[in-house]
Amino acid sequence: MNTIRILLLFLTIQDIVKPTRQWKIPCPSVCVCQNKEAVCSNHDNLHYMPPLPQNINSLVYSNNGLIGFTRNVFLNISKLRLSKLVLMRNDNVQRNIDKRAFLMLPYLESLHLKENALLYALNGGLRTLLWGLKDGAIQEIRLTQMNIYSYYTNMFLDLRTTTLKRIVMDNNIIPNFTNVSLPRGLHYLSLQNNEINEISFNEILPKLETIQLNQNRLEHIPSFCMDDFGNSSFLPNLKVLDLSNNRIKLIGKLDIVGPCYSKLKNLRLGGNIIKGIGDDTFSELPSLLSLSINNLDPHVSLGYHSLNSSSLIHLDIGNKFNAFSERLDVLFRYCPNLKSLNMTGVQLTAYQDVAEKIFRVFRSLRKIEILILKRTSLTTFPKKLFPMMPKLTNLSLQDCRLKDSQLNNFVNVTLNFLLLDNNLISTITKANIPEKVKHLGLSGNPFYCTCDLVWFRAWLRQNSGKILGWPSNYSCSLPKEWVDKSLSDFDLDYSFCHPIDPYIVFAICISSAFCLFVIMSFIFYKKRWQIKYQLYRLRAKRRGYQVLGDHGFAYDVFVSYNSADSVWVISEMIPRLEKKEKLKLCLHERDFEVGKHIVDNIVDAIQNSRKVLIILSNRFAQSQWCQFESTMAQLRSIKNGEGAVIVIILENIHVQNMSKPLNILMKTTTLIEWTNDKRAKEMLWESVVSTIKS
Q1: Could you tell me whether strands 437-441 and 476-478 are parallel, antiparallel, or unpaired per DSSP bridges?
Q2: Which residues neighbour 151 within 8 Å (Cβ) at sequence distance 6 or greater?
Q3: Which helix (H) or strand (E) holds 689?
Q4: pLDDT tens per residue across span 305-330
């Protein structure tokens, strides 16, 4: 009996488990499944939604052949808890739109319809399609790049009582946005990069907090007031309004009525080429914390009270106008709570009293914490300003004109960040190092790598963690031997920078000896090849020459090249001349005799080769040994006549590398220019082989 009971229990458990196993679905071949997301794209013959694994909650379905939104279009995925659906570039979806299609996706929270222009082209198609979301969990709808050119006021009418919080309609061609019926629970509305020249609302949206209207055609700040007196607003909780990159030219107090924007915290007006901002324009915005008015008209007119705002904390006024030609000396006086100020590009230049004018501009910023003055052409930052800014922690003076002497102004200043990148600072010493700064940016400065910088280099070994970006873009500009070399490689011996003072007589003797040495060095340098060659001839007469080969040559060709061009020799020349043409080449890296003097190796190699092939490059022209080889080749050419020396030019030779012997060689020798063109390359090698075998 016990055995029978156990068997029946086993069969019962098997029946329960079996359906679960059957329900497990693998990822279809037309899709890619990763974690909980499936991507099904680029299949013209995919006219349906394929079954997906049960753990999938996000689907990207793009560039396929979906025929339409029938009632059962989502049947294969209806059992999934799908929360996100992206439908992109499905060109046939304008047909067969059934308003019940989305009823099969009750858990859908985010719907993204992108580049489905034909879907919008069908009158009322979008509203019909969205109807199925009215009883679901939808929170976000994105209708981007749909070529929407006019807005049907009832498009979202069926969703007014849903949980929809975000609507994004960016990158369309909507000309206006008026008399709109939107869900009352909407929090976020984005209409970026359209052609909107007018926007208004006819009903209260109590939860709408953010409107993105940048890159449109608005010529004035839209009014969201419910009446002409500005006593109440259609958007009572609006906090973020982005109007950047529109066509607004003038702003005044009457354009922003306080009660209509009582909760506004972030206002963005940058990129509007605004020509004038009137007095007290922002003074009636009690909640305003952040204001961006960057990239205004270079000749913008500002009043004494243009920035009057007791609540303002963050201000971006980056521009190209000259601050001293405006009224900035009192402009910030009426921003008593300003903590962050960005003036990137504003020119702080004057013919005289620059320090005093800068002091007057910033002296009222008692609560400032972050001050950004990039690309302002600053030549000084007054030391007496720091006591006026007791809370300053971050100071950016990048891309200005500050020199070494200005570092003294920061010596006893306590900051978290001091950015002095791309200025004119050349030397840092113990006397001017800002020791109390936690993070210091100095990249891009023209450092003079001399003894004056030795102390700073030693300091860096112990404090490199304080220097931002070290060692990238920290390089020497002087002296000549250190130009463009990394500052991390700079190191001078202590004795070099601190020599013992010699007696005057001894100094004169040393100086005289040095002058004599320079003169002799110059003479030896000018005649170095002749001297080396004569020394070789004297040695050669004593031991005689050794004749090799049936024709008196050990090699067909001696190849004169710089080691930097070894890759070209190995990959291009050897396969063609040695392996294909069976010529015997003499290469210094392979065939020179170990232990033998290099001059002997060079002259013997040239003497024991039928031809000399010079691989000419800038590295070759800069090498003394390569120049010696070319000189020996010229002597060989004079002795054996034309055809004894062949020159292949790998690249254009810079004028500074063109020595007189090299110039003569190029004028008197057969020259062949290298090219990567396949046909021209074949003709080049045929010419070289023909010359060698002639």
Answers
A1: unpaired
A2: 174, 176, 177, 180
A3: helix 678-693
A4: 889 999 999 999 988 777 776 566 77
Instruction: Give me the CATH number covering residue 42.
Output: 3.80.10.10
Buried-exposed string 655-667: b where 16+ CB fall within 10 A, e elsewhere? eeeeeeebeebbe
Straight-line distance from the first to the last Cα atom of the chain, in angstroms, rounded to the nearest whole number: 107
Sheet holding 585-587, edge to edge: 585-587, 555-560, 609-616, 645-649, 670-673
Collapse the DSSP code of 192 into the 3-class scheme (helix H, G, I; strand E, B; otherwise coil) and give the result: coil
Residue that has been written with the tokens 């080969």 in this structure:
549
Residue 157 within a domain: yes
Write out pLDDT tens, residues 130-173: 999 999 999 999 999 988 887 667 889 899 999 999 999 999 99
pLDDT of residue 530 exceeding 70, the answer is no
Q: Could you tell me if residue 625 is left (phi over 0), alpha (psi between -120 and 50 degrees) or otherwise beta?
A: alpha
Cβ atoms of 74 and 66 closer than 8 Å: no
Q: What is the pLDDT of residue 254?
A: 80
Name the helix (H) or strand (E) containing 277: strand 276-277
Find the CATH number of the domain harbouring 564.
Answer: 3.40.50.10140
Tokens of 661: 């012997």
Query: How far is it, in rounded angstroms, from Cα 319 to Cα 326?
Result: 12
Q: Under a CB-based contact definition with an 8 Å cutoff, are residues 650 and 565 in contact? A: yes
| Other C-beta atoms lying within 10 Å of the C-beta of residue 625 | 15
Chain position carrying tokens 């006819």: 202
Look at residues 193, 217, 241 and tell me which one is the last residue of a structural domain.
217
Given 217, 252, 287, the domain boundary residue is: 217
Residue 394 contacts residue 374 (beta carbons within 8 Å): no
pLDDT value of residue 21: 41
Q: Write the CA distances from 16 to 11, 20, 383, integer angstroms.
A: 9, 8, 81
Distance CA 374, CA 132 (A): 53
The tokens for 109 are: 């929270």
Q: Which amino acid is at 120?
A: Y
12 sits in which H/E element:
helix 2-23
The CA R_g of the chain, rounded to the nearest whole Å, is 40
Number of domains in the chain: 2
Q: What's at 285, amino acid-wise?
A: L
Six token digits for residue 611? 């031809």
**How would you write 470-509 as a 3-class SS string?**
CCCCCEEEECHHHCCCEHHHCCCCHHHHCCCCCCHHHHHH
Residue 48's nearest CA partner among 30, 36, 23 is 30
Nearest 5°: phi and psi at 141?
Answer: -130, 125
Please name every residue paired with 485 in a beta bridge, in sequence order, or none if there are none. none
Within 13 A of 212's CA, how many CA atoms are on the CB side? 15
Q: Which range among 45-54, 291-300, 462-471 shows the weakest confidence by mean pLDDT?
A: 291-300
